[in-house]
Amino acid sequence: MKINGNSLKPGMIISHKGSNWKVVSAQSVKPGKGGAFAQVELKNLKDNSKLNERFRASEDVDRLYVESKEFQFSYKDDKDFYFMDTANYEQINLNIDIVGELESFLQDNMLVSIEFVDDKPVSLKLPEHIKEKVVETEAVIKGQTVSSSFKPAILSNGFKVMVPGHIENNTFIIISTTTFTYVEKAKS
After folding, report:
1. 88 - beta bridge partners?
2. Pair type for strands 91-95 and 129-137
3. CA-CA distance, 117 to 12, in Å (whole number)?
4. Beta bridge partner(s), residue 111
5. What's the pLDDT band for 111 if we cut at 50, 70, 90?
6. Long-range pairs, 38-47, Cβ under 8 A, ≥24
7. Angle CA(33)–CA(38)–CA(42) in degrees, nearest 5?
8. Domain positions in the chain
9. Is 129-185 the same fold as 67-125?
10. Which CATH architecture has domain 67-125?
11. How does pLDDT run across 88-110, given as a tens digit for each residue?
């Protein structure tokens, strides 16, 4: 399906320069002179290479038809991750090339979406927000408010994230899986 270059959004899968690419980020730019364009960061679905590209508003881009199915994460071995189809209980395995940096955030029995192009799995989507535990961060400074500066923290999965000053060790927080950033303190 052909779409306008300015219509690209993060998460879309397109065919470009003979490969399939996932849109990581897209920003509309309207320069003072000349036509508007989209500055797009793409990730190759085969080799995970990245590409920054400009698409003019008048340019057509091939958006691929993506089928998304819900799966439950089961387990991981040396080289693959195993998921169970929640509809028919069939098992599918994905290699690290597809899972990539999302590996740190996969939790036992987590419901995820696996996207397919032509019946081949091409990408994995986690729930939009997940709960993680802060295992190491600097001490709380008395009088520091939510709106003050952020400090580094290490989560139970080893991931490093910036958190507000009032977050302490052993606190559960909500993380965005699209930006890998702090969203809020988790409700108890």
Report:
1. none
2. unpaired
3. 12
4. 72
5. very high
6. 38/5, 38/6, 38/8, 40/8, 42/14, 42/16, 44/19, 44/20, 45/13, 45/19, 45/20, 45/21, 45/98, 45/122, 45/123, 46/19, 46/20, 46/97, 47/97
7. 145
8. 2-63, 67-125, 129-185
9. yes
10. Beta Barrel (2.40)
11. 989 999 988 788 788 888 888 99
Query: HSE (CB half, 13 Å, CA atoms) of 152?
Result: 4
Least confident of 123-132, 136-145, 150-159: 136-145
Fold of 129-185: OB fold (Dihydrolipoamide Acetyltransferase, E2P) (2.40.50)
Beta carbons within 10 angstroms of residue 140's beta carbon: 14
Q: 116 and 64 in contact (C-beta within 8 Å)?
A: no
Distance, CA of 158 to CA of 155 (rounded, Å): 5
Describe the chain by its helix, strand, coil percentages, rounded to 5.
5, 55, 40
